[in-house]
Amino acid sequence: MTTILKIKRLDPTVPLPSNGHPNDAAYDLYASHAVVVSPGERVQVSTGIAMEIPPEFMIFIWDKSGLSHKHGIKTLGGVIDAGFRGEVKVGLINLGDEPYIIEKHHKIAQMVLQRRELFQIEETDTLSESSRGERGFGSTGK
Predict the structure, then answer these.
(1) Which pLDDT score is estimated for 83?
(2) Backbone angles phi, psi at 65, to 5 degrees
(3) 126 to 108, 133, 137: CA distances (angstroms)
(4) Which of 5, 25, 37, 120 ranks highest by number of CB atoms within 10 Å?
(5) Is 56 inside a domain boundary?
(6) Which pLDDT band, with edges at 50, 70 and 90, does 77 fall under?
(7) What was the pLDDT predicted at 139?
(8) Is the C-alpha dihedral spanning 105, 53, 118, 25 positive or negative?
(9) Burial 28-47 (b: 16+ CB within 10 A, else e)
(10) What is the mean pLDDT of residues 27-42?
(11) DSSP strand pairing (107-115 vs 73-75)
């Protein structure tokens, strides 16, 4: 059974999310307007779309690998809950050394539809032992 993700165009000219290849997991999101992102600057880029996400799902917003690797353009978090019906906007930061120009209708991020798992929080005073324990960042070496 195919899951349906309803998309409402708020800007009739903006492309619908699409994937580049039939088996790609993520769908590209497009800018609804042009913006320049200076080095170190954070911006919020409108996509010109709103969505109706099925209740048992959520959307994750991820980097476009070419933008992040070649230009330092990274997304700033992004989980869209099923109940949200407003315009999808993507937070971006330029970690590069040069201003980056996003043109209208350029790909800015990608989204992944994922089934959500409900869970219950249980407070406790103790946690079970594990082989890793409390060793954190860098605990496995180089």
Answers:
(1) 96
(2) -60, -40
(3) 44, 13, 22
(4) 37
(5) yes
(6) confident
(7) 67
(8) negative
(9) bbbbbeebebeeeeebebbb
(10) 98
(11) unpaired
- Which string of DSSP letters, residue by residue, matches 43-69? EEEEEEEEEE--TTEEEEEE--HHHHH
Q: What is the pLDDT of residues 85-140, one digit of tens each?
A: 999 999 999 999 999 999 999 999 999 999 999 899 999 999 999 888 887 777 66
Q: Which domain holds residue 10?
A: 6-17+24-115
Torsion of CA 53, 58, 61, 66, to 10 degrees: -90
- On whether residue 53 sits in a domain, the answer given is yes
DSSP type of residue 11: S
Unique residue bearing structure tokens 């060793």: 135
> Is 109 among the domain residues?
yes
pLDDT tens by residue, 8-22 = 999 999 999 999 898
Query: How many domains does the chain fold into?
Result: 1
What CATH number is given to the structural domain containing 29? 2.70.40.10
**Amino acid, res. 52:** E
Q: What is the dihedral of CA 19, 15, 53, 122, to 10 degrees?
A: 60
- Residue closest to 63 by CA, chosen among 44, 39, 91: 91
